[in-house]
From TrEMBL:
This is L1 transposable element RRM domain-containing protein. InterPro entries: L1_C (IPR042566), L1_dsRBD (IPR035300), L1_RRM_dom (IPR043636), Transposase_22 (IPR004244). PANTHER family: L1 TRANSPOSABLE ELEMENT-RELATED (PTHR11505). Residues 130-192 form the L1 transposable element dsRBD-like domain. Signal peptide: none annotated. Residues 30-126 form the L1 transposable element RRM domain.
């Protein structure tokens, strides 16, 4: 029993430590946008900052004139080799202010689809791998709630929020949602299969 208790404490501390690391990593990346899909040869003549200015001038011209939106730096992600998923390295753009990043992201979301030189590109928040994984784990649940018009949202960094019985509920992880579902039969029926891992 003592060994079990010690093991549980170690697991809890490891979980807390991982959560703290994720929060630190995400806070360091708070002002960053990740641009996905721009080939590396595009920046050879004009550099990454010049490429960023070109993309904004073409795709979001109203924001290109905004003197309050300034970037601190732009860089490519480090080289990682994955033979199963060859892709160009992402561009990370760091803004001097969080508000500048948010305005760019809002404008990009409103555009819905962005292309540069005939290629599809995408803007995304620059988050830690752990946060992206946590968000990905909500995918099935989010899809089911969306089909039922329950207005699901992924809140920063990886909380699921949705509307039920006129109230907005928010959950940090699937365990908390599972605990809540036990007291709500209608919600349990809607999410049957998405929380236990079984197929619907």
């Amino acid at each position: 029993m003592e060994n079990n208790e010690a093991e549980k404490k170690r697991e809890m501390k490891a979980k807390e430590h991982n959560l703290q690391n994720r929060e630190i990593s995400d806070s360091l990346k708070r002002n960053n946008i990740r641009i996905i899909g721009v080939p590396e040869e595009e920046e050879r003549e004009i550099g990454l900052e010049g490429l960023w200015e070109q993309i904004i001038a073409e795709k979001l011209p109203n924001l290109g004139k905004d003197t309050d939106i300034k970037i601190q730096k732009a860089q490519r992600t480090p080289i990682t080799f994955n033979k199963n998923q060859p892709s160009t390295r992402h561009i990370i753009v760091k803004f001097t202010k969080y508000s500048g990043k948010e305005r760019i992201m809002k404008a990009a979301r409103e555009k819905k689809s962005l292309t540069y030189n005939g290629r599809q590109i995408r803007f995304a928040a620059d988050l830690s791998t752990e946060t992206w994984q946590a968000r990905k784990e909500w995918q099935d649940t989010f899809s089911v709630l969306n089909q039922k018009n329950m207005q699901p949202r992924i809140l920063s960094p990886a909380r699921l929020s949705f509307k039920i019985e006129g109230e907005i509920k928010s959950f940090p992880d699937k365990q908390k949602l599972k605990e809540s579902v036990t007291t709500k039969p209608a919600l349990r029926e809607i999410l049957r299969g998405t929380l236990s891992g079984e197929k619907r």
